Amino acid sequence: TMPKEPAVLRQNILDTTAAILACGIDPEKCFLFRQSLVPEHAELAWILGCLTNVPRLLRLPQWKMKRASQNSEGTVGLLTYPVLQAADILLYKSTHVPVGEDQVLHLELAQDIAQHFNKKYGEFFPVPKAILSEL
């Protein structure tokens, strides 16, 4: 949600890919792709954003904390980032999502958005469940 120099962003993408591969992820056994090259992420985020109310986003603790660190301003990108996360999850019809404690509320938002969408348009998205690690 913070602007980055294009060269730095490109290098970050390469570094992250290298780290994923170094962790043992085998691209022969899984899908490894650059999310920014899949326009459906942003398209679904727009649709879901039209179904999400602003007061709900304003109550998320991450918004409050990050906004405080940005001199009480905060950007639209920061506010709507949880909707993009929901789109990332729902686009692939994920049923279970590994999350840390700090992301449980964002997953709950994704669950609520899926339920709202399904109620309005018919059963389409599974309602994802959290997989919490004790680590």
UniProtKB/TrEMBL annotation:
Family the UniProt entry places it in: Belongs to the class-I aminoacyl-tRNA synthetase family.
A GO cellular-component term linked to this record: mitochondrial matrix
EC number, UniProt record: 6.1.1.2
Organism of derivation: Drymodes brunneopygia
Name recorded for this polypeptide: tryptophan--tRNA ligase
Signal sequence annotation: none
Keywords: Aminoacyl-tRNA synthetase, ATP-binding, Ligase, Nucleotide-binding, Protein biosynthesis
The gene coding this protein: Wars2
GO molecular-function terms, A-Z: ATP binding; tryptophan-tRNA ligase activity
Record GO biological process: mitochondrial tryptophanyl-tRNA aminoacylation
